[in-house]
Amino acid sequence: MPPAKPPSAQRTTQGAAPAPSGHATPPPPWQDTPPVSARVIDAITRIGAVMRAGVWQAAASEHLPPVQADILDLLAARPEGVRLSWLATQLSVSPASASDSVTSLVGKGLVAKVKAADDGRAVALRLTPAGRKVQRKLTQALSFGQDAVAALPEADQAALFAQLLQLIAQLQHSAHFPALRSCPSCRHFRASTGAGPHHCTLVDAPLPVAWLRLDCPEHSPRDAAD
User: Fold this and answer.
1) Sign of dihedral through CA atoms 22, 25, 31, 36?
2) Higher confidence at residue 9 or residue 177?
3) Cα dihedral sign for 119, 121, 123, 126?
């Protein structure tokens, strides 16, 4: 004799048919399942926490607080230098707080203050050779995450990245995400209208999903009217 089903399963079997896929309220026994949107954010948050913990552990070995490690990472992608106000926006901290962290990094010889390329009266912040060396060590702390992504099929990697870019774009509409130099937000980006790839007008070349960039140095912000 087969084992008796639990009450919840009996109710599901004897009651109404299960809700169709995508229904907002799952049927018993799944009625307490959070929405997919909440589970996506939960998954991203958990991944982010693990990745940041790895970087912070590496930063601690270099006697760097987490925010200073973040600053080194941001400056590594901007060899031309950045303004203090930009750093504060990217970090979601006050200019005074960002200034304190930068002053500490300058004192450690990891960041240099130079004249801004676009305004000789303004100050830009850049990594020193020592700062770039430390930043590479911090990046290596993320290798386990890169290995995990690399284990996915290439098509899945490209699709996942494209979907994350779409999510970032939605967050930017809500003003809760700082500006990025990503391909979809660039004036040179032409989205695919069919089976073919996207296109970059700057170099006049096809731009497959697998080659989209999150931070492109040639990025030119799209006008509001575009």
Assistant:
1) positive
2) 177
3) positive
Q: Which of 50-54, 149-153, 168-172, 205-209 has the lowest mean pLDDT?
A: 168-172
Q: What are the two backbone dihedrals, phi and then psi, of residue 195, each rounded to the nearest 5 degrees?
A: -80, -20
Cα(163)–Cα(166) distance, rounded to whole angstroms?
5
Pairing between strand 205-207 and 119-127? unpaired
Give the pLDDT of residue 226. 55
**CA-closest candidate to residue 110, choices 135, 145, 93, 86:** 135
| pLDDT tens for each residue of 20-70 | 444 567 788 888 888 999 999 999 999 999 998 898 899 999 999 999 999
Instruction: Out of 3.10.20.310, 1.10.10.10, 3.65.10.10, 1.10.287.1080, select the CATH number for domain 62-140.
Output: 1.10.10.10
User: E-assigned strands of 47-153?
Assistant: 111-116, 119-127
> What residue segments make up the domains of the chain, in order of their start?
62-140, 152-211
Tell me the two tokens of residue 121.
Answer: 């009266």
C-beta neighbour count of 68 within 10 angstroms: 21
Query: One-letter amino acid identity for 212?
Result: L
Q: Rounded to an integer, what is the distance from CA 38 to the centroid of its chain?
A: 18
Of all residues in the chain, what percent carry a pLDDT higher than 90?
49
